[in-house]
Amino acid sequence: MSKAWIVAKKEIKDNIKSARFWGLLGLFILLIIVSSYSVGFTFRFGGAAPAERFFRSVGRSLANSFQYIAPIIGIALGFGAIAGEREKGTLRLILSRPIYRDDLLNGKILAGTILILLAIGISFVIGIPVTLVLQKANLTGDDLARLLFLLVPAILLALTYYAISLFVSVNTNRSGYALVVAVVVWIFLTFVMPLISAFVASSILGPPPALPTGINATRPAQLPPQLQQYERNYRQITGTVQLISPNAQFNTLANAIFTVQRQQSNLDIGAVIAQNWTAILVPTIYIVVFVVLSYMFFVRRQENK
């Protein structure tokens, strides 16, 4: 483990010195501030629901943005982890020293995890106080608990794409190619999977029942029972198809974090996890599977250059 920590320290040091890491960190902080301004504008002009709290709306806005930003930091840290060393010709030099392949990979994974925690954690430590000062908003203990709990799915999502990018990096000679493949995977899971799930649901259920004249489609309670049942079936099928999508699972858990139950005004973390355990299990499976595959392929691969 000491050798792995040496690798990790070097990786962390190199990334902290890079403009890419600080650019991502700045993007996270800017995202929090911009989200708070957007929500603050809505509150000032009466666009929010009367019972809605400012930081809960900020949390929802952040969750919508994190589903795109968190994968980017995972990909940015993972695509060049091994392929970059191989491309520069330093991988064989590193492995010629008294260091095992699993030590090298352990160090890379440890560094990637720490850097993801630093990027997301520091952005919250800076972004939330800045929001408090600029927006003069009231942050309750429940608001803070919900915002901090949002870090869990955000970190899991970033680690998921880090694990995927690391696996691609292990199996390629060019970091540019690893980046392209990782981005293609991100595009598929983020944008294509929802389209596939909608297509499957439409193919199974057919077209929705016609909406009677005079019914407001924006008010679910006013919809006829047949249409309400159709929408429930539609959501169930799309949810089942997207069960394998870490992005969809992130959205599920993030929505649950900022949903306030009538009988429970404060966040009940245990209840949220119990009701949305698949949203934690699915990204965890992705992380474990791709990390294990990275070990298997990296240990067996012969370095030709």
TrEMBL record:
Pfam families per the UniProt record, alphabetical: ABC2_membrane_2
Keyword Lipid biosynthesis among UniProt keywords: no
Keyword Transmembrane helix: yes
Transmembrane region(s): 21-45, 65-84, 105-132, 144-164, 176-201, 277-299
GO terms, molecular function: ABC-type transporter activity
GO cellular component term of the entry, any: plasma membrane
Keywords annotated in UniProt: Membrane, Transmembrane, Transmembrane helix
Protein known as: ABC transporter permease
Native organism: Thermofilum adornatum 1505
